[in-house]
Amino acid sequence: MKNRIDARPPPNIKSLAVLLTAVLCAPGLFAQTSLDAAMRVTAVAQAVSPVLTLRWPASAFPGSAIAVTRTELKSGVQTYFPLKAAVTSFADQTAKPGEVYQYQLNQMLTVGAGSFYRNGMISAAYDRPLADGMDRVCILVDETMAVELAADLEQLVIDLRDDGLLAVLHTLPRMVVTPWDTSATAGGARRAECEAVKSAVRRFYDQDPASARALILVGHLPVPYSGLQAPDGHPDHYGAWPTDIYYGDLDGEWTDLYVNQPSANLTAQNLPGDGKFDPQYSFSPLELTVGRIDFSDMPSMGVPNGVRGNS
Q1: Over the stretch 106-125, which tens digit does the pLDDT of each residue have?
Q2: Do strands 135-142 and 212-218 pair parallel, antiparallel, or not at all (unpaired)?
Q3: pLDDT tens digits, residue range 225-268?
Q4: 219: left (phi > 0), else alpha (psi -120 to 50), else beta?
């Protein structure tokens, strides 16, 4: 099939950061938003060279040269392309038909006396044959929302099917243990909640690992916390952060033994045995791409209980 783009999220993203977005990494930059730090990359294919062209919006802030790192997913071979600061596109003159490439873009922006990075990432391929059979997607739904969202979930399954994906849907209990709960029983209960979700994911994956592609979490299912970082630079945020890749990493080691970070911000606090994990990165490729749709604690989105946001 000609002129086909494969823009799947790469399966081996190892950072706990959300795909295709970046977070502010210098303290004191209060005026910037995550949108300023995100290079929203798109890919276009054509039948003649260059077969792949990347495009992204210009930044409102002055920046350094843009670094493009291309990784050939099959071999792992990386190629570096330095670009001028003001450019908003990159034509890959050496991309080969049928090969899947992961492109990572980085640029440092200057705001007053400070600076921060904006990053982007996309996977793309040209003239890549369609895979035989259907890849499978696991959809796990907060059981308190399943009835109200029945029509929406049915449409989601249809949309995924039309994209060549077979959706498998299950319901699970809503998150109970809050991340700021420091009671004596919270650690064990918090970990048990997350392990119950991961067990459901593992059952889905083990049915046919070769076709298992992605996980979609719908609603306020248990949120894993892990690591020791403050990606936005604020000292009171230093500690554990939401880490849904825990569910997509089925062979990694997720301990809760070593990080010992007391904090007045109990949500970020990470102590041994508190049900918040140690790793800041997953050191093995993810088995599943993971995404979450959850409007809980976001009343401005339209519905206080987080069932459905404004559309």
Answers
A1: 999 988 888 888 899 999 99
A2: parallel
A3: 999 998 888 888 999 999 999 999 999 999 999 999 999 999 99
A4: left
- Residue 148 in contact with residue 157, Cβ under 8 Å? no
Q: What amino acid occupies position 173?
A: P
- Joined together, the tokens standing for residue 213 give 């592609």
pTM of this prediction exceeds 0.85? no
31-65 pLDDT, tens digit per residue, is 456 667 788 999 998 888 888 999 999 988 999 99
Instruction: Report the candidate in 24, 30, 18 with the shortest Cα–Cα distance to residue 233.
Output: 24
Tokens 């109970």, residue? 176
Q: Does residue 133 come out as left (phi exceeding 0), alpha (psi in the -120 to 50 range) or beta?
A: left
Rounded to 5°, the CA angle 97-102-104 comes to 135
pLDDT tens digit string along 122-143?
999 988 876 667 899 999 999 9
- Run of H or E including 200: helix 186-207
Sequence-ordered list of residues with C-beta below 8 angstroms from that of 132, at least 6 positions apart, any chain: none
Report the SS3 class of residue 142.
Answer: strand
Going from the N-terminus, what domains does the chain have, and what CATH number goes with each?
1-130 (2.60.40.10), 135-301 (3.40.50.10390)
> What is the number of alpha carbons within 13 Å of residue 257 lying toward its C-beta?
3
User: Sign of dihedral through CA atoms 145, 146, 151, 152?
Assistant: positive
**DSSP character string of 213-265:** EEEEEESS----EEEEE-TT--GGG-EEEE-THHHH-SSS----SS--B--SS
Beta bridge partners of 167: 137
